[in-house]
Specification:
The protein is α/β, with parallel strands linked by helices and 556 residues long. The protein has two domains: 51-335, Alpha-Beta Barrel (TIM Barrel); 355-552, no CATH class. 26% of the residues lie in helices and 27% in strands. α2 crosses α3 and α12 runs antiparallel to α13. The longest helix has 18 residues, at 497-514. The radius of gyration is 24 Å and the shape is globular.
Length: 556
């Protein structure tokens, strides 16, 4: 409930690049006055620092495994007051109805979500999704003022080739005055310029500063991403001194265990610790997303909504209080909002499988003991993969994983069509020494994705997810079986955030300490192994896919 009050604080005026002690007056949910303390020569070290709240410029809320209302309760404790949220994860499962679900759930909390109209559902025609969002659907979504932008245009080949269907969606966004988010990993030079010239304004996929500079030169804004799987902060933060006006921070995908510990406050702290100007950093974290997406978020100006945070100092950025529309919603690391009711929706029709279905056969007239086979190589902290052609052992005409080379089996099982055969490939980089992991979170179509040491473990993990109609599973020996159910679209839990974070942390720890994965976030990495729009080699429910040529490959 709103009330009028006065706070004695040090105001951080980012545009004026000034810090001064003041009386901050809030009335009717807005900043009524900022009255500098007479005679004060600067900030008072005894007072907290007031600054605009942090804004995550690109995030898939579903990847937190939490519904929006629970995501908000964790994020508010870290000083995040708004997100630019792409709901294409649930869009791939449930279509426009999934987007509406996110809007309805989010409306139960005062957190300032800005949802986009998903531009690529399904992401490609080379996989099975649960729904399609057409240009007509996007136009309908744009009738809703809560849909603030066209979400990431992942079909970058379609943009470069000026595909009419792709251009129609971009033109709709321009017609309705919505910015268009980009997704163009690795594009540089003329390709980056051509991509931007289609009217695409941002990119969050840069993994080198050279690539980012080309896109900045083409007029795009660059989002520095630091999530649970993709971590590009270290590679891109050097851009800040010369390009801070055209940068934003984002998490893209944030699992609940890391969200429980921190959010953009961690990036701000890291950037300032590296010696970058606190005003440059805070402009990136607080102001730039509000301006670019025209968000209804206050910026600590007289007349603005009273959306601001109090931090202990401008070094640690420990968030003491978070205010939204003049209401204290979080204090000392705890959200003050009660949990909201969570409805359950889903689209899940997969059936249990047998281990024998995961066999990879080769021609019967292959006499040699090994076969050169295309293998996906994944990398810690990256969404991109590499293609490796490796010798794999043969036994009875079946291609075998090779743990000595850290080569395991990767499986994608269609969850929308009962009885569909699994797609099976091989992957290097997970480090499992036994057991298997399986997940119904598999970007972007969210079929079941699994990685495992042997076929029996793979089938057990997959069948746990099938039985729950969505979730994360890890298995070791016959007695070791762990499951985090995700009943909401097979993507999100209906439980409170801290409970989900604890359950996820237990799964993550088991995957690392008992099964042997050395990845920072093995389940997050697994979830991207079916994301065909990120090069170079991925697996869909229809087969092994070359993300650079944008076509299926054979077993050369």
């Amino acid at each position: 409930m709103q009330s009028d009050f006065v706070l004695a604080v040090n105001v951080v005026d980012i545009p004026a690049r000034a810090i001064f002690s003041a009386q901050l007056r809030v009335a009717a949910g807005r900043v009524a006055a900022i009255e500098p303390v007479t005679g004060a020569s600067g900030p008072d070290p005894a007072l907290p620092y007031a600054l605009p709240g942090f804004v995550d410029a690109h995030v898939h809320v579903e990847s937190s495994l939490l519904v929006p209302s629970e995501f908000a309760r964790l994020a508010l404790a870290h000083g995040t007051v708004a997100t630019v949220s792409d709901p294409h994860e649930i869009g791939n499962v449930l279509g426009v109805a999934g987007v509406q679900y996110m809007l309805d759930n989010a409306a139960q909390v005062p957190f300032k979500f800005c949802f986009g109209a998903p531009s690529c559902v399904p992401a490609t025609p080379f996989e099975t999704a649960g729904a399609e969002i057409t240009a007509s659907d996007i136009e309908t979504l744009f009738q809703n003022p809560k849909i603030g932008y066209l979400a990431e245009m992942m079909n970058w080949p379609g943009v470069l080739n000026r595909n009419p269907g792709v251009l129609e969606k971009i033109e709709l966004a321009h017609h309705y005055g919505r910015p268009v988010d980009g997704h163009a990993p690795g594009l540089q030079g003329e390709d980056a310029a051509r991509y931007a010239s289609a009217g695409i304004s941002t990119d969050h996929e840069c993994f080198t500063a050279i690539e980012a500079r080309d896109k900045l030169a083409a007029g795009m804004k660059i989002l520095i991403r630091e999530g649970s799987a993709a971590r590009n902060f270290d590679a891109l933060i050097e851009l800040l001194p010369h390009h801070y006006e055209n940068l934003m921070f984002c998490s893209d995908d944030k699992h609940p265990d890391t969200l429980l510990l921190g959010h953009l406050n961690q990036l701000v702290q890291r950037a300032v610790a590296l010696g970058y100007s606190v005003f440059d950093v805070l402009q990136v974290a607080c102001l730039n997303p509000v301006a670019h997406y025209k968000l209804p978020v206050g910026q600590l100006r007289v007349g603005d909504p009273a959306d601001f945070i109090l931090v202990n100092n401008l070094t640690d950025f420990q968030v003491k209080q978070t205010y939204l529309d003049g209401v204290l919603v979080a204090e000392n690391g705890q959200c003050l909002l009660p949990p909201a009711p969570v409805a359950v929706v889903n689209n899940f029709h997969a059936q249990p499988i047998k281990a024998a279905a995961l066999a990879v056969q080769v021609s019967a007239n292959t006499p040699q003991p090994t076969i050169t086979y295309p293998v996906i190589e994944c990398f810690d902290g990256q969404l991109i993969t590499a293609r490796r052609n490796l010798p794999l052992p043969l036994a009875h005409g079946l291609v075998q994983p090779d743990p000595a080379q850290d080569v395991l089996k990767l499986v994608v099982l269609n969850r929308y069509e009962p009885g569909a055969p699994p797609a099976v490939a091989f992957i290097k980089g997970f480090g499992l020494r036994r057991g298997a992991l399986a997940s119904s979170v598999g970007h972007d179509s969210h079929n079941i994705t699994a990685v495992g040491y042997d076929d029996e473990s793979l089938a057990r993990a997959i069948n746990l997810v099938v039985a729950a109609q969505g979730g994360l599973a890890a298995v070791g020996t016959a007695a070791e079986a762990h499951l985090l159910p995700l009943p909401v679209a097979g993507l999100m839990s209906d439980r409170p955030g801290p409970e989900v974070a604890a359950a996820y942390s237990a799964l993550d720890t088991f995957a690392k300490t008992q099964l042997g994965s050395g990845l920072q976030a093995p389940f997050m990495t697994l979830s991207f192994m079916a994301l065909l729009v990120i090069p170079s080699l991925k697996l869909s429910d229809k087969g092994l896919f070359d993300g650079e040529k944008f076509e299926f490959i054979g077993n050369e």
